[in-house]
Amino acid sequence: MAIINGSVTNYAGNFAYFLDVYEIQTNVANNQSLVRVDVWLTSNTRSWESLSGVDGTVTISGVQHGFDKIVSIGAGGRVVLTTCDQWVTHDAAGAGSISISSTFNPTSSYSPGRCSASGSFALSTIPRASSLTSSANFVAGDNLPLSISRASSSFTHNIEVRFGSTLAISRGGYTTSGTITWTVAETKALYGHMGTAQSVNYTLRLITMSGGTLIGYKDYAGTITAPAHSTITTAANFTIGQALTVNLSRSRAAVTHKLTLAVGGTNIRQADVSGTAYTFQFTAAETAAIYAKTPNSNTVAVKLTCQSYHCDHLCGTVVKDGTATVNSTAARPIFGNFTFGDINSATTALTLDSQRLVSGFSTLQVTVPAADRATSTTGATIKKYIVSCGGKTAEIPYGASEVAGSIRAVTGGSIQVAAVDSRGNQTSVTKLADIIDYTPPKITTMTVRRQNNVDTRTRLVLEGTYWQGNFSAEKVNRPTAAYTYQASEAGGWSSETALPITIAGGKFTLTAFIDGDLGANGFTADASFDLLCKVNDLLSSAQLSRVLDRGIPTMHMTKDGIGVMKLHEQGSLDVAGQIAVTDSGLTTTMGCRNASHMHYFTDAPNHWFNKPVYVQGDVYGGNNYNRRLLYADELLNKIYPVGAVYISMVNTSPASFLGGTWSAIAAGRVLVGVDTSQAEFNAVNKSGGAKTHAHESGTLRAQIGAYDGNSASLGYTASEKGPDIFHYAFTHSANSLNIANSRINHATKVAGTSAAATNLQPYLTCYMWRRTA
């Protein structure tokens, strides 16, 4: 509602003329509203009656309405002169304003005179274009549900899909809801705008119609997204030669796939898959191609790629890595035969058959003929043969021609040869040989002992085992034995002497006196001997050595005395060799009453005592080269006489262990040899010198010489030098060549320093003592 105030020509202070304007109805479909105008006349203190009708007009948005009114109004009264209604059309936006005016022309006395009012009236806004209340985003190929809010039930709507200014798809006939179902052609058209991307932005335009009249439109931004790519739900692992089934999970049935299987970086097959599963049934050529990608391994990398398509648009790619594994049983080498034989001439000479092996001694040779060489049908190469027998192995490099290898000292009869390919796969062939379980002879017991432990006759006890069997009908195994000896110190083995061993039940024994360097009397008593026994059979031997000790005992006791390292012959103690006393002093008591006679330090330089010798009584030197006797104090005087200097790195006075009287000397000083030609060093025990020295000015002089001996040049002349430290105001004629013609006063000052400089020479400290008494 709005009020438009007007004016009167008479009694303006008592009469008022105005318009009351408002909308009483709207027509949304026609974009119109019904505007009503009430024309009012009011009075303050005056009264008036027109007695007859008075003409007036009301103009609404250019349309004039006339009226005629008999008026009777008292003081303070209000009169509606007329009410006019008019349909007006809003602008395209549903809003706008209109002009309104009115006139009323009474002419009688006491009337308000000419009344008029004019102004504008703002129309309310009538809803025009409808609104989309649902999302404009959708996945390509999926239905797009629509929810529309409209201002009038008569409104209908059209939908446009736009990319920039390009109209792609148009649909119509929607009211307040609906669903857009896209055709395949439309979906492909949408993908055409998406290109290789997985989404594209677009504009959805909602057009509002009222019958055939365009009410308006609104644009909404949206995004079209491609469906998610499918996923591979199974592993990409398979055994070469067997099928691989791939299962897929997809977002919609319309999505198709392109599966690519690559092995070792090479594409093996590409397949178009419309469903959700596919099985690779490999052809022989494909299997061979896969084997060719893994010539040196039992596994090879697999890459399974799935490309998802919707209406010919690539929605995405997923890759799953896996492993193709060689069936080691199906792919192993083809190998079936070899030959073998014993090539040890020593054993074949006994067995008389190369197919019989002697355990521990035969040399087995395995041969793979060219016709029997191993091959591969799965792309591998044969690398070698591994021969195994009795826990030992040997390798034979592969060759197209005949190859052979051997194992020494085999211990088993089962011979296995394995052909090995480049993948490490093997095919083994086993053959059995006749094995002779031979064991070499073994000496289990050997003792040699002198009769009564000291006599020359010597008894040998020998026991052992041997293999009791036949290598062949002609070669029956029997052991023999012999011995040889040598003096332990002199060396030189004797010739072998046969031993009459007894053999029975796989054992041999002997207990008998044996001949030695004394023949049947055995071995010299005061010497030791090395004895070596040997036992031989048809194939091998065993030997064992022992030492026969001397017949002289370490201690020989008789009723007359004891012999040490010899048989007792004289005295109470008869010793052969030296007597060394290391842990205590040696006390010797002689049988003479007044004198004792012993030889110490005599005849040879290796007769000595490791401990002090204490003598009670006088000691007299002998008459040979060792007759001089020295006592401890006499020895000190000879090595360190009075005045000698003792130097040590240990702060222990020599008086404590050498004896005598000693004084520490030269603390913080060095020793200098006496030089009688130098005053500082011309006598013993003089000291002097200083660690530091100061270079002060009193110890310094300066000299300035004349140029080329010319007394007229700058410098002191020889006659002018003197003891003065400073000498001022020497004047000399200037040299016109290099000095201006003037007089020069000059002086040279010598400056020193009181700081002390070190005089220390490199040194090493120690302790020094001088013997004083």
Structure, described:
The protein has 773 residues and is mostly beta strands. The chain has six domains: 121 residues, ApaG domain (Immunoglobulin-like); 95 residues, Immunoglobulin-like (Sandwich); 95 residues, Immunoglobulin-like; 98 residues, Sandwich (Immunoglobulin-like); 107 residues, Immunoglobulins (Immunoglobulin-like, Sandwich), CATH 2.60.40; 41 residues, no CATH class. Helix content is 5%, strand content 42%. It is built from four helices and 51 strands. The strands form 14 sheets. The chain has an eight-stranded antiparallel β-sheet, with no helix packed on it. The protein is elongated and about 200 Å long. Pfam families: DUF859 (PF05895), Gp10_C (PF21939). This is Phage-related holin (Lysis protein).
Helices and strands, with pairings:
Blueprint: E1 2-8, E2 15-27, E3 32-43, E4 48-49, E5 54-60, E6 63-69, E7 72-73, E8 78-89, E9 97-104, E10 115-122, E11 131-132, E12 138-139, E13 144-149, E14 155-163, E15 166-174, E16 177-180, H1 184-194, E17 199-210, E18 213-225, E19 231-232, E20 238-239, E21 244-249, E22 255-263, E23 266-273, E24 277-280, H2 284-292, E25 299-310, E26 313-325, E27 339-342, H3 345-351, E28 356-358, E29 364-368, E30 382-389, E31 392-397, E32 403-407, E33 414-421, E34 426-432, E35 434-436, E36 442-450, E37 458-465, E38 480-487, E39 497-499, E40 502-504, E41 507-514, E42 529-536, E43 541-548, E44 555-557, E45 562-564, E46 573-575, H4 632-639, E47 645-648, E48 662-664, E49 692-694, E50 756-758, E51 767-771
Parallel strand pairs: 12-18, 20-26, 28-35, 45-46
Antiparallel strand pairs: 1-2, 1-10, 2-3, 3-8, 4-7, 5-6, 5-9, 9-10, 11-13, 13-16, 14-15, 14-17, 17-18, 19-21, 21-24, 22-23, 22-25, 25-26, 27-29, 29-32, 30-31, 30-33, 33-34, 36-37, 37-41, 38-39, 38-42, 40-41, 42-43, 44-45, 47-51, 48-51, 49-50
